[in-house]
Structure prediction request, 270 residues.
Amino acid sequence: MPAKGKHRRPKANRLTRTIAAVAGTGSAAIALPLMGAAGAHAAPAPAKAATAHTYTVKSGDSLSGIARAQHVSGGWKKLYDNNRDAIGGNPSLIRPGLKLTLGEQATGKAEPAAAKPAKPAAKAEPAAAKAEPAATGFTAPVAGATIGTPYHQAGSMWSSGYHTGTDFVVPTGTSLKAVGAGTVVSAGWGGAYGNQVVIKLADGHYAQYAHLSALSVLAGQAVTAGQQVGLSGATGNVTGPHLHFEIRTTPDYGSDVDPVAYLRAHGVSL
Prediction:
């Protein structure tokens, strides 16, 4: 039996040493991957958190202005695509109080990067300030435009025998402004005038904007001086894109007065 004892003892020693060696190396080998896996799993967690940012439309807003000020990637078209169900089929027609989704912004470590574009927004303010009303509360219907066909120019192409308004030469898509505070009495198709907006001003006169490519207001809506009411275009009976602008004593055709003289009398430089 001694031979068997001699045989078992060395085998047990080798097995003990093998287990000890495996335990000595295996514990480290197992511990390191576990720590590495935990670290790799925990690191991306903050980047996964994101919040949807929204913006509430205010009077005078437009999709392009919101997209520029809020730094929406993809501009107004992306903003419109993200909110098509809420806005409807006309991207120029957004109502005050409407909540728009601007997109997702990562939280945690990503916040500082998202906050950096805030400074450029202030640089856009001077451009918007150009449309600010004069001290009298009135402003031009379109900024920096050249006057084309003047008021009362005679011609057989007009049913009255003369031009009942003043044309401002601007390309399609130019922002058009309410010349003064008032209430929209009509916004829609106006026959030969194409898409039009008519506003009853605070002093009882009416301002008409014709041949628009898009409307930004609804009938019954209150507007302030300088607020966008639509975009210029070439709808209706026209030979090219421009704004046909009238000042009337009633909302109806034929009650026109000289629009340039009216605006200049209210402190507007044209």
